[in-house]
Structure formats: C-alpha cells, structure tokens
TrEMBL record:
Organism expressing this protein natively: Aldrovandia affinis
Gene Ontology annotations of biological process type: cell-cell adhesion
Ig-like domain segment(s): 4-145
Protein name (record): Ig-like domain-containing protein
GO cellular component assignments: plasma membrane
InterPro entries: Ig-like_dom, Ig-like_dom_sf, Ig-like_fold, Ig_sub, Ig_V-set, Myelin_P0-rel
Any Pfam family the entry gives: V-set
Key words, A-Z: Disulfide bond, Glycoprotein, Immunoglobulin domain, Membrane, Signal, Transmembrane, Transmembrane helix
Domain of life: Eukaryota
Basic and acidic residues composition-biased segments: 184-204
Keyword field contains Membrane: yes
Acidic residues compositional bias, start-end: 240-258
Amino acid sequence: MCRPRLQLCAFLAGLAASGLLCVSGIKIYTSGEVEAVNGTDVRLKCTFQSSITVQPSSVSVSWNFRPLGPGQHEESVFYYQNKPYLPTEGRFRKRVIWAGDIMGGDASIMLREVKFIYNGTYSCQVKNPPDVHGIAGEVHLRVVTSASYTEIAILAGSIGGGIAVMLMVLGVVLWVRSCRRKRQENLERGPQETKAPRERKDPTLCHPAEALHLYMSDEEIEIDSSDGMISEASTKDPSSEEEEDDSSDDDGGGDDDD
C-alpha cells in the first residue's frame, strides 16, 4: 500500500520539477475598486503573470459581469483569443474596447459611456495553458453622478504638479541659455578688453609734478636751531665776504690816521 503511494508522489514531484505540472497557477492582478462618472469612459485594469512562457495564440482572456443585488445572473462582457470578440447583444454591445497587450501581460478593457446599470462586479480570467489554475481577479465598478472630492483633489494636484515641473524645467533651460550667452560674449571680447583692476591711490603720497616746489636748485635749506624755523641759505660766495671784510678794515684804519 505504501509503495504505490510513494511512487505516485515521486512521479508528481518529477513532473513539477520538469515544469509539466503547474503547481502555483497563473497570477492575476486587478485595480479592485473603480469609480466613474456617468457618461464617461473608464478603464478596467487587469494584468497577469504566468510561470509558463506566454504564447499569444494560446492565451485566452474572458471578462464577466455580475450586477448588484441578489438573484442577478452573470453576463459575458468580453472574450479574447488571438483577437477580441466583442458582445453582439446585451447592455455592453458597442460599449467595450480591448485595451490590453498579451505579450506585456495586460488583459485590460475599456468601457465607453458608462451608465448606472453598469454598477457591479467585473471578473477577469486569464489562461495560458497549461497554466490555467489561477484565481480570477475582480473589479468593483461604481458609477456616480459627479466626481467625488477626493478625485477632484487628486486631479487638481496632478495638474498643479505637472505645471510646477514644467516651470522648473523652463527655469533651468533659461538659466543654462543665459550662462552660455555670457560665456560666448566673454569669448568674443577677448582677453585684451578685460579691464585691469584699478589701483588704489595712497592719499599720503603726491605726484612728482605736484612736488616740484619742494625742490630748489643751487640753494640749501638751513634750520635755525633757536626757533626750529627753516630759512633760506645765503647764496653769496665766501671770497666776496672776505673782500668786504678787508675793505671795511681799510676804511676803519684811514679814519684812525686822520
């Protein structure tokens, strides 16, 4: 009894290891809850991740709708395999658009001009044989008369943020252009046009032309030690002074003889 069970377990383990048996199943992700204003378009997001290589010819996508309230029957909304198959009757006729990408793992659809009768739960089922055991994802759609305050705030914030980013980018571009323009002007001027730094003049010094009156040619300046005043030195020749002394002596001697 135990041996056959062990053999079966070993066989299943070998299949799982070889990839022929999918244990985990395909994973499907949806947006959960969506709110849309009456008469507008809304995107029902559904993405998937498979452990098996995606083959566009073998992947199938099916969307179903379950209205609100008890006793309501489930209704087919959309089907895809190789190409989209749109509903030919019912409330979703000419109201569904394929908005997915199989190779990108996207199985989303778009509902056009939603009405209040679209309120309910939408289920998204994706199969990628042999990966077909995933749990379907669900999207709860609520159609309202006008957008809620939260959605308006989010929209306003998004618009304001986009404008702020654009202004920042514009400011950076203008600053870069200004720097380039100044650099180009400096290159065109050349080094010869650059102004040398202005020397600061010492107020205690004077120009040589202004100090000519301080220099006296062939004259000497004497300082009288008695009063500290500066007097002009005599320019007479010493020999002439001696001759004057002799003449004065001669005059004095003549007077004595008389």
